[in-house]
Amino acid sequence: MAEMEQVPGPGRPEATSHAAIEQAAFRLFAERGFDGTTLDDIATAVGVSRRTLFRYYPSKNDIPWGQFDRTLESFRQILRALPQDLPVAEVVQQGVLRFNEFDPDADPPHAERMRLLLETPTLLAHSVLRYAEWRAVIAEYVAERHGVAPTDPLPETVSQVCLALALSAYVLWLRDPGPTLAERLDRSLADLRAYLD
């Protein structure tokens, strides 16, 4: 199918993009470290004002997370799109695996992004907030399937355990990229399901 020509919308043209900001920021993070890089440094590297930067990301801590809100919405859609006659645990496992698929040619590379998120002390508190949003997607789905509130023990526990398994898989993958992230994550989730059966 032929690509349609992109016609600019009304109003001012975009000054930059999420991708351009992330690429510049990650270059600076690699050179100066996360803490040694300011928002002004990033804005200058992208060629925009600090104010424009804030239109794309509410804080420097949000830049390594990319467009996480958008991916959370995709995660909700993934869980709802999977066959609902499957056991909840299988849907969650497949959903978590699909959520964690990434473009191997992404810029910045996914491993670089995750290493920064997992190994930068300054980002850990902010990451807890983002992880809570991720866990909420799972808790809402499990709660809906079981007819309980997302704050009930089952959905809360499932979401916490899935996060622990995902983070563990990432840590192991970053340490030794031999087995793929998907293989590590699938194995962890399958082992847990086997243990619980």
Automatic annotation (TrEMBL):
InterPro entries: Homeodomain-like_sf, HTH-type_TetR-like_transc_reg, HTH_TetR, MftR_C, Tscrpt_reg_TetR-type. The keyword Membrane does not apply. Keywords: DNA-binding, Transcription, Transcription regulation. It comes from the Bacteria. GO terms for molecular function: DNA-binding transcription factor activity; transcription cis-regulatory region binding. The keyword DNA-binding applies. Pfam families: TetR_C_14, TetR_N. Residues 15-75 form the HTH tetR-type domain. Residues 38-57 bind DNA. NCBIfam families: mycofact_TetR. This is Mycofactocin system transcriptional regulator.
